[in-house]
Amino acid sequence: MNGAESLVRTLSGAGVEVCFANPGTSEMHFVAALDLVGGVRCVLGLFEGVVTGAADGYARMADKPAATLLHLGPGLANGLANLHNAKRASSPVVNIVGDHATYHKEFDAPLTSDVEGVARPFSDWVLTSKDSSSVARDAASAIAEAMAPPGRIATLILPADASWGAADGPATLPPVQPRAGAAPETVAEAARALRSGETPVLFLGGPALREPGLTLAGRIAAKTGARLIAQTHNARVERGAGRIAVDFLPYPVDAALKTLAGTSHLLLAGSKAPVAFFAYPDKPSALTPPQCEIHTLAAPGEDVVRALEALADELDAHEDAPVQQLDTSPPPGGAVSPDAAAISVATMLPENAIVVEEALTAAGAFMSRTRGAAPHDYLQITGGAIGIGPPLATGAAVACPERKVVCLQADGSAMYTVQALWTQAREGLDVTTVLLNNRSYAILKGELANVGASSAGRTANDMMELDRPALDWVSLARGMGVDAGSAATMEEFNQQLDAGLRSQGPYLIDLQL
Ligand SMILES: Cc1ncc(C[n+]2csc(CCOP(=O)(O)OP(=O)(O)O)c2C)c(N)n1
After folding, report:
1. Which protein residues are within 6 Å of ligand 1, measured from CB?
2. Which of 174, 302, 466, 469 has its CA 20 to 30 A from that of 127?
């Protein structure tokens, strides 16, 4: 057995079933070992941002890591933006990055670079295997590191000679660090804050936004009058009819400040204290009012569900709060708008769908209108690096082949990782993409004013328009093997959405906004 085979056997033995890959010469032994071993499905992405973004989507839905396979420093570098999003989502990911054979490095061949240096800022753990007999043990460590709470990015660099040299066999997964529970004093302090009679907020993130956490949060809110607010950007939220509804903290600073105005105590439950996405002249960075006391019930890596359970017990909060009712508004006709499209999506969304949302200026409409949709999971861009939607949808569909994935996708962002459509076609993934075609970087037009940039001239405006030439989305999709149709009215959109949702494979709707 060689090092590559010991690696694949270790991945498979530890339950890593999928590898999103874009390989090169230095990874050929790994690719060959996949055939030899079996048990690890290898999914090709035609750009590394697709590979890392798909691994993120997979991890969010499978609650375990996928591996990625990337080609030396440049291949990893191409995947970093979505690795950043995955890190911010606390998604467990095991990157395997091929490198030159150890003895070849001194020759400074063209693809030579400091791979560890490239990996470090976007990884929680980085290791280069020193030889083929270490690879299996290193891989097992990488998997355990990725699975450590809250979910981490582990990057294992694999010199080509560590792949092809002899190995003893696979290694078993070392014990994975469990999530820490809340100390009794922490729970008591949180209970005191909630009983204070003032205006508390339970600020939810991470696993608190899945059904068990939400049910507990609902009971606590019903008992104490605390408001439930979710972080602005979340890896995964279980929402829709029959579940406890939570508002997301708005993205615009003024709206966020207004939402939190008058809050006396803010309890962090699997979340971080809310801050502005960017600094703006004359606006604060922290979004909580100055007099607000912030208490940590559970930090992102801690067991927030157990902490909420303990808090509910402490408060004797055992009565379920009312759940969200199903919204049955009919799909609207007439002129297209983000809001009208959001109503149609909400009404037509099948039960248990996975909604991937990278809708930017249309995000607010989709978020609020899908509140009363059939129960679904809602996946957002977590790290602000656009181009996550199509890969995220791809990875989610690989993780959950029995569920419909609906990707609500802004056009400018889609162009970063449009190649994901090809992977969706090749793998026959059940993803309906609603492509929000406004032919511009619309959000940046607002940001130009928000940051107080003075006169916006032709150059500035030109940096935000995508209409010269206009992108032909139906052709782009069809060119990658994805069936597609265009919609310029709501009647056309409703019909297209129905066609997409009925199809069992990928479909793209070019929605002309
Ligand atoms: C990797 C990366 N590059 C650039 C940006 C800056 N940026 C933020 S929003 C945006 C444009 C988004 O346009 P689009 O996806 O079409 O959505 P719209 O604003 O039109 O709704 C850009 C370029 C970013 N956030 N991430």
Report:
1. 81, 360-361, 384-387, 410-413, 438, 440-444
2. 302
Interval between CA 52 and ligand 1 midpoint (Å): 19
Handedness of CA 69, 73, 75, 80 (dihedral sign): positive
Cβ atoms within 10 Å, residue 103: 10
Q: How many CA atoms lie within 13 A of 213 on its CB side?
A: 27
CA-CA-CA-CA dihedral for 372, 274, 411, 337, to nearest 10: 40
Chain Cα centroid distance, residue 28: 29
* DSSP states along 379-406: EE-SSS-S--HHHHHHHHHHH-TTS-EE
Three-state DSSP class for 227? strand
Q: Which atom of ligand 1 is nearest to the CA of 416?
A: 1
Cα of 441 from ligand 1 centre, angstroms = 6
Non-local (6+) Cβ contacts of 490 within 8 A are 331, 332, 333, 334, 335, 336, 340, 341, 344
Q: In Å, how far are 219, 281, 312, 364, 386 from 461, measured between CA atoms?
A: 49, 21, 52, 24, 20
Q: pLDDT, tens digit, for every residue of 159-214?
A: 999 999 999 999 999 999 999 999 999 999 999 999 987 889 999 999 999 999 99
Q: Is the dihedral of CA 233, 276, 346, 216 positive or negative?
A: positive
Query: How many degrees, rounded to 5, is the angle at CA 358 between CA 324 and CA 155?
Result: 110
| Residue 370: exposure state from Cβ atoms within 10 A (0-12, 13-18, ≥19) | buried
Looking at residue 454, its pLDDT comes to: 66
Place of tokens 């696993």: 207
Q: Is pLDDT of 456 > 80?
A: no
3-state secondary structure of 95: strand
DSSP-derived 3-state class of residue 158: strand
First-to-final CA distance of the chain: 56
- Is the C-alpha dihedral spanning 164, 165, 170, 176 positive or negative? negative
Name the residue among 212, 211, 188 with its Cα closest to residue 315: 188
Q: Report CA 73 to chain centroid distance, whole Å.
A: 23
Minimal-distance CA residue to ligand 1 atom 1: 385
pLDDT number for residue 504: 94
pTM above 0.90, yes or no: yes
